[in-house]
Amino acid sequence: LPWWALFLLCLSKRVHSIFILRLFNDCVAVTLAHSAIALLLYKRWYLCLIMFSVAVSVKMNVLLYAPALLLLMLKGMRSKGVMLALFFAASIQALLGFPFLVAYPVEYISRSFNLGRVFIHFWSVNFKFVPESIFVSKVFSIALLVVHLLLLFLFAKCKWCRHEGGILPAIGLQCDVGECKYTTFLHKLFAKVQFDNSRLCNLEAEHITTVMFTGNFIGIICARSLHYQFYSWYFYSLPFLLWKTPFPTPL
C-alpha cells in the first residue's frame, strides 16, 4: 500500500465529525477492533481475542470481523489453542457483564445480544430505496443473511484459502479415505473428519489484513441498515481494499 494513501484518511470531514463532534461509541469500538487486528499481525492470538472481545462489548458491529478471524485462527493455530482463545474471549464478556448478569441476567442477555433488532427505516442509508414494508420484513432479513453467508463461503473457498486448496485443507481438516469401521451414517461422517495440526499456515501480514478487511466489508454490504456513523466501521480499510483490486494506481 503506498504511504501517501494513508494521508487520504485524514481528509474526511465526516469522519472528523463522527470521532470528535458526535462522540459515537462506534469510534471506540473501531479503535479497539483495529488494535486487535494489530495484535493479530504480530501473531499475538490470545491478546488479540481479548482485545476483540473488549471491542465487541462496546458495540456488536465488531462481530462482522468474527468469521474472518475464526478462519485465520483455524489456519494459524492448533485446535486446542483456538478453544483456549475463544474461552478467553468469552471470559471477558462474562467479566464485563458480571454486575448485570447478577442483577438482571435475562434482561442483560436478551438486550445486549439482540440479533433480531429491526432498525427504523427512516434512518437507513444503504437500503433507503427499499419500501418500508419489505425493509422490516423477516424475509428481507433472512435473504441478506443468506447472501452474507454465501459471500463469506465463496471468498473463503476461492480467495482466502485458494493457495491451500480449499477451506478444509486450509484449516487442517483432512479426510480419511480408508475403510470406516462404523456402520451408521453419523459415525462415518464424524470418523472421517479429524484435525491435522501438523499443517499450520504461516500467515503473512498482508493476507491477515486482506481477510479481515474483506470479511468486514462483506458484512457491511449485507447489513440491513447503515447509519451515517457506521461509515467509521469500514472507512479506514477502503484504501487497502482498493489497492488490492486490479485497478491501476496513478502514483
Automatic annotation (TrEMBL):
PANTHER family in alphabetical order: DOL-P-MAN:MAN(5)GLCNAC(2)-PP-DOL ALPHA-1,3-MANNOSYLTRANSFERASE, NOT56 - RELATED
Record's keyword annotation contains Endoplasmic reticulum: yes
Keyword rRNA-binding (UniProt): no
Biological pathway: Protein modification; protein glycosylation
Catalytic activity: an alpha-D-Man-(1->2)-alpha-D-Man-(1->2)-alpha-D-Man-(1->3)-[alpha-D-Man-(1->6)]-beta-D-Man-(1->4)-beta-D-GlcNAc-(1->4)-alpha-D-GlcNAc-diphospho-di-trans,poly-cis-dolichol + a di-trans,poly-cis-dolichyl beta-D-mannosyl phosphate = an alpha-D-Man-(1->2)-alpha-D-Man-(1->2)-alpha-D-Man-(1->3)-[alpha-D-Man-(1->3)-alpha-D-Man-(1->6)]-beta-D-Man-(1->4)-beta-D-GlcNAc-(1->4)-alpha-D-GlcNAc-diphospho-di-trans,poly-cis-dolichol + a di-trans,poly-cis-dolichyl phosphate + H(+)
Membrane-spanning intervals of the chain: 44-72, 84-106, 134-155
Protein species of origin: Taxus chinensis (Chinese yew)
Entry GO MF terms: dol-P-Man:Man(5)GlcNAc(2)-PP-Dol alpha-1,3-mannosyltransferase activity
Keywords on record: Endoplasmic reticulum, Glycosyltransferase, Membrane, Transferase, Transmembrane, Transmembrane helix
Subcellular location: Endoplasmic reticulum membrane
The name this protein goes by in its record: dolichyl-P-Man:Man5GlcNAc2-PP-dolichol alpha-1,3-mannosyltransferase
